[in-house]
From TrEMBL:
SUPFAM superfamilies: P-loop containing nucleoside triphosphate hydrolases. PANTHER family: ABC TRANSPORTER ATP-BINDING PROTEIN ALBC-RELATED (PTHR42939:SF1). InterPro entries: AAA+_ATPase, ABC_transporter-like_ATP-bd, ABC_transporter-like_CS, ABC_Transporter_VariousFunc, P-loop_NTPase. Residues 4-227 form the ABC transporter domain. Keywords: ATP-binding, Nucleotide-binding, Transport. This is ABC transporter ATP-binding protein. PROSITE patterns: ABC_TRANSPORTER_1, ABC_TRANSPORTER_2. GO terms for molecular function: ATP binding; ATP hydrolysis activity. Coiled coil: none annotated.
Length: 250
């Protein structure tokens, strides 16, 4: 039984296809990183996995239970989105405590997580005064408050200072006991993090490879380009209107 299973997942924005029939399974403790150009559908895919956007077609299951419309299963997921979605008027510690209360978790875990992300000394400060990198670290700590089985991470390395980059890399490297699905443009760091590499092009999954099948990080882009050859250059369209959604692809 896969920890995370995606079957024929699609998302339509009117006549435009954001994600087109994507399927894959991740085992418990496995880390998959998805690569793709801007507009390939990476963020749209992660938003559906995070239950922030409803699929037009297909199914997502966590431990063999359907995710869509199932609040109990959503609690098994931790999400670090491209936008941190923190309450800026609250302190770092208050953000974590609020999330802990939502999940019925002992608030003592919050101080431990602030230590983990290197912000124990700044926990009493409002996040409105934090840099992007510091806010991203608070967001990661929040995603781990309820000890989720699956962690979703959209662009973990974008716009980070060196301190935050090193700290987040360290935390992600240590998450070997849970399933991780991340998207990134950083080929080298993504390759180092991954057990598997998925490639999206125009919303389609064009490749799903074990890291051992790719010689090194420098070969990731070459592999992606090779997998995309023969695909239509223009975005896919369908001849039916799907449900409206305010999101988009990245």
């Amino acid at each position: 039984m896969a920890a995370l299973s995606v079957s024929n997942l699609s998302k339509y924005f009117g006549a435009h296809v954001g994600v087109d029939g994507v399927s894959f399974d991740l085992e418990s403790g496995e880390t998959a990183v998805v690569f793709g150009a801007n507009g390939a559908g990476k963020t749209t895919l992660i938003r559906m996995l995070a239950s922030l956007s409803r699929p037009s077609e297909g199914e997502i299951t966590i431990d063999d239970d359907s995710l869509v419309g199932n609040a109990a299963i959503r609690s098994k997921i931790g999400v670090v989105a491209h936008e941190t979605m923190l309450y800026e008027e609250l302190t770092a510690r208050e953000n974590l405590r609020f999330h802990a209360r939502l999940h019925g978790v002992d608030e003592s875990v919050c101080d431990d997580l602030l230590e983990t992300v290197g912000l124990a000394a700044r926990g009493s400060e409002r996040v409105s005064g934090f840099s992007h990198g510091m806010s991203k670290r608070v967001s990661l700590a929040r995603a781990l408050v309820h000890d989720p089985a699956v962690l979703l991470f959209d662009e973990p390395y974008t716009g980070l200072d060196q301190t935050s980059l090193s700290r987040i890399e360290s935390v992600l490297t240590d998450l070997k006991d849970r399933t991780v699905f991340a998207s990134t443009h950083d080929l080298e760091r993504g390759f180092e993090l991954a057990d598997r590499v998925l490639f999206l092009n125009d919303g389609r999954l064009v490749g799903d490879l074990e890291v051992e099948a790719i010689p090194d990080a420098a070969a990731v882009e070459e592999t992606y380009e090779a997998l995309c050859r023969g695909r239509p250059a223009e975005p896919a369209v369908v001849d039916r209107a799907g449900p409206a959604d305010s999101g988009g692809t990245r």
